[in-house]
Amino acid sequence: MSTVAVPARERGRTARQAWAFVRRHVLTVYSALFFVYLLLPIAVVIVFSFNQPVGRFNYTWQSFTWDNWLHWDAVSGIRSAIVLSLEIAVIASVVATALGMMIALALVRYGFRGRGATNLLIFLPLSTPEIVLGASLLTLFLNLNVVFGFWTILVAHVMFCISFAVVTIKARLVGFDRHLEEAAMDLGANEWTTFRKVTLPLTAPAILASLLLCFAISIDDFVVTYFNSGSEVTFPLFVWGAARIGAPPQVNVIGTAIFVIAIGATLANVLLTSRRSSGTA
Amino acid sequence: MGFFHRHRGLTPYLLLAPGIAWLAVFFLLPLGFLAYQSLESGSIDFGYAFTWAWGNYWDAIRNYRGHFIRSFEYAGIATALALVVSYPVAYWIAFRGGRWKNLLLLGIVAPFFVTYLIRTLAWGTILSDNGFVVRTLRDFHLLGADGRLLATSTAVVAGITYNFLPFMALPLYVSLEQIDHSLIEAAEDLYANRFKAFLRVTLPLSLPGVVAGTLLTFIPAAGDFINAQLLGGTKQHMIGNVIQTKFLGLIDYPAAAAMSFVLMAAILVMVLIYARAVGTEQLTG
Fold first, then answer.
1. Is B264 in the A-facing interface, judged by CB distances under 8 Å?
2. Which domains does chain A have, with CATH numbers?
3. pLDDT tens, B175-211?
4. Do A131 and B16 touch (CB under 8 A)?
């Protein structure tokens, strides 16, 4: 009734304001719910690492205990699985990042024949289903009578990490000011010194990002490893085996630990970068 | 130093050589071996021999058509769900995130910091028969008294959607973030309607993100077998489960190799059709 008195244009504006208000909050509420959904399984993993399950299934909440954390390696095989996963992840990320850095340098710095083919070869593994990557590597090793184990896992992990390393480092090299290198050369530094003293420090964040990404992908990989591990057991393979008979809460403990360490490292990185950028702005 | 100067043309090849060789030997060559293996015939007891056995491909399609169709159905539904669910959030972060953007993005990728298998098992816990979700659905009679979610296609699709959600949300965010705000303001002035402005300007400009996100979600989802294994029953098995069992359980290499290639080819065809469809839409839109 009262709205009748309000001029049409005025009414349009209040309606629009109301709509804008509703829309802003609808979107915010929706996003909050989205994050609840996204983080719910993580919360479950963390909570159930403190559960004391009755029987072998860690599915329903029984009672709180520190035991799983205190005796994280009480389950046979879990410690060696974690050690193997860490070894593979460290070596694979270092090797893949080194190879990826060289490819990225070649792609960004030089014009050469076969550029398109190189880009395609980098892109293909990223767009191939993991099961095909794993299966094809399996047939290669089978046909060449290679013994499955540590080395086959390592070779596979380096293979699927290279593309990620190239993509990560390339993005950084593209925005790189080459005058800095030229200045160093003008001042008498040779190519190797320039690379060591100028290029490397300036690309360090990209190299670090590549190392972290490769490490994360390697330590989480199940499918390709499953096809090429022989009788070796990495942590994801251990979880797979354990899941068949009911995963022990120790699996949640390790899952939580990996999560906390990874999120901590990334959070530190994010905070550092935003502080640096706000400092220069 | 002198060497590099005298052979500048060689430098890029020297830089490329080790990495490219690695990919050639451990990615391309294996695909060749897989192709070779897919044309073999024989049995596990007497060994396999190369016989140009094209029939393997025919058998793969004929015998496992259901699994192929189910894989693409699940992957398609999961991709569509992921797009619809994460677009508003990507939009919200890009336009309203302000100084919290980085932290919110970290929230988006947080699931990746939990081992894939463990977060899938966590969904198993959430959807389990005695869990909170199933009990609530039963209370509201949305599920029968003995109805369950585990070992249903709902659980498998939900698991796939969840597991690949960040692959969808991140490219969406990147493309939305790059949009020039003055374009949207201009559109709002011209169309005098925010919704119309969104449809005509924001959505088309974010299309690259939609395309990238859909591909990044669909391709791994179609080949996935972990969700079907951990959250589904045998009736929900996808082609990945079959390939995995044939390779590692039944040691039927030729059939499994043929199936892998059919999977790859089917994905490739779908991606091409999709790219064409989106491309023409972009032209006409």
1. yes
2. 2-67 (no CATH), 76-247 (1.10.3720.10)
3. 898 888 888 888 888 876 778 888 888 888 898 889 8
4. no
